Amino acid sequence: MAEEWRSVRVLITGGSQGIGLGIAEVFARAGARVAITGRNTARLATARARLAACGAEVATITADVADSRSCVRMAAEAENLLGGIDVLCANAGIYPERAIAQITPSDLDRVFGTNVHGMVFSVQACVDALRRSGRGRVVVTSSITGPTTGFPGLSHYGASKAAQLGFVRSAAVELAPHNVTVNAVLPGSIRTEGLDGLGPETVDRMQACIPLNRLGEPTDIGHAALFFASEGAAFVTGQSLIVDGGQTLPELPEMR
């Protein structure tokens, strides 16, 4: 495995915690050269130390994907640190809860600014490097919420995640002549820092909705991203893969 990935250069946005950190761990353990980005420099340093404790070495870049100029700088730094970019994992995202009646223009700007604009800006900034790679891969972290399911308080988030898949399909067609594939992973309920304050009862209820009877781990999403970035997925583009432990399968709640 390490031999296959040793020359692969991977940039992961939103890589300082949660799913992004899990993606970084999987790629780094596979042997790839990895750079992670985030807005919080201290959090990036903590993530790098955690990965180093696992025997993985990654580079860190402080950047805000909602700012197109920051993305241009991010891509340039990644090329310099890694020697190029073969894989972009456009993972950065936010999910603040708001009832529909309480959503403000600022809320919409913030959610779409990170989840949709940030994804587009990241791809724009990296596209030349991905073309030069000769085997470029874009892997977008979307969600089951929006494209497949709904959840109260997350209508604006769900809309942003559905929008990501529209981008994935058209970008896949546009970039195919350059041998760049574009795919998406749709996580279900994943055990991340965002669950820390919910309490064990809430987590137990979430787990009870999943046929595999457990929450996903960030590395479960990392392995899906690794597949899309692999040579084994060279003929796969414009697709989405649900990784949810079967959460979306039962026809009735009592079947879970």
Detailed description of the structure:
- This protein is α/β, with parallel strands linked by helices and about 260 residues long.
- The chain has a single domain (about 1-245, about 250-255), classed as NAD(P)-binding Rossmann-like Domain (Rossmann fold, 3-Layer(aba) Sandwich).
- The protein has eight helices and seven strands.
- It has helices at about 1-5, 20-30, 40-55, 70-80, 105-135, 155-175, 200-210, 220-230, and strands at about 10, 35-40, 60, 85-90, 135-140, 180-185, 240-245.
- It has a seven-stranded parallel β-sheet with strand order 3-2-1-4-5-6-7, sandwiched between helices.
- Strand 5 (about 135-140), helix 6 (about 155-175) and strand 6 form a beta-alpha-beta unit.
- Helix 2 crosses helix 8, helix 4 packs parallel to helix 5 and helix 5 (about 105-135) packs parallel to helix 6.
- The radius of gyration is 17 Å and the shape is globular.
- The N and C termini lie far apart (about 35 Å).
- The model has no long low-confidence stretch (mean pLDDT about 95).
